[in-house]
Each structure stands twice: as structure tokens, then as C-alpha cells.
User: What shape does this take?
Amino acid sequence: MKNHQQIGRFSEEQLASFRAMLSKRLGREATDEETFESANALMNLCEALYSVALRLRHWDERLKTEPHGFALPISISGGSYNCGICYATIAGEQGWYDQYGIKCRICQRAVEDGTIPGAVCSDKKSWWSAHDLNRMFGWHHTTIYKKVRTGELKARIIKSSEGANHYYVFLKEENVNI
Assistant: This one.
């Protein structure tokens, strides 16, 4: 094994146990380097997930005093987020957090004005995107938009502040014939 300074966050017993699991998965004996690298990668993942969980818990606590939500705080690390609806990358105050989760300002406005239900952000199984329809049925985006124009599909169209179509949401309850 690596010297104790390099493995400081793992005991010899932990590394031995991890080596046994890794070796079983690999179908051969894991090397010292593979064991350490894999254990370290797993620990880094766990630390990142824990950090996110703490941030979300803090934000949920903040919702008790700001029940309508708030602009995402600007991250010290310069981190970014993804909108829970359109998946746009957003940084800091470009985003909004409320009981439905993280959204870009465009999608937040669509929730506020009733274009889409807020639950769309937290219940991905209740709707499809144009990308989902393409993946599921092989429909090209022009086919999808034609089906919207002819009424074969009902879309909730999220508009940008300039009035351009930003994102299409197809609620399953409104498109039962798919």
C-alpha cells in the first residue's frame, strides 16, 4: 500500500476491505494503486454529494422565511447549476430556487405565469421534452413542431423575455395518445 501520508484518510482495514470489493468487481486482484485511486475517487464523490445535500438543506431552511423562493446565491467557487426544466446552465443570480427546485429565470417566469405547473421541475415523469420525443420515437424536431401546429400534440411553450420559443414541455396528461 501507499505510505500512511498518502492514505491518511483511510485505515489499512478500510483499504483491505475496499481492495477485496474492487478485486471481486475486476475479476482479478486489484493493485495498490487501483485500490487507492478507486477509494479516493469514491470518497471524493461522497464528499461532493454531501456538500450538495448540505447546500440544499440550507436552501430548504431558507424557504421557511422566503416561501416564494429566492435568487440562487452567487457561489464563492464560481459554480454553476442546471435548470430542472430546460437544463440550461445557470450561475448564481441567473437562477431561482423554490419548493420545486432550481430553475432558470425564464422557466421560473413560466411557472409564475401559469404556462407550466411548478411540479414539472420536480416530477420529470409527468412530462416529455422535444428531446425525449425524439429519443423515444425518432421524431425529428420539425416533425414534433408540425404535430404541435396541427394539434396532434399539445405543448406548453416557454417563451424567452424577447418572445422567442425557449423550451417545449409536453405534459403526459395532455398528450395521452402518445
Notes: The mean pLDDT is 90. The first helix runs from residue 12 to 26. Strands lie at 70-71, 81-82, 89-90, 95-98, 101-104, 127-129, 156-159, 165-171.
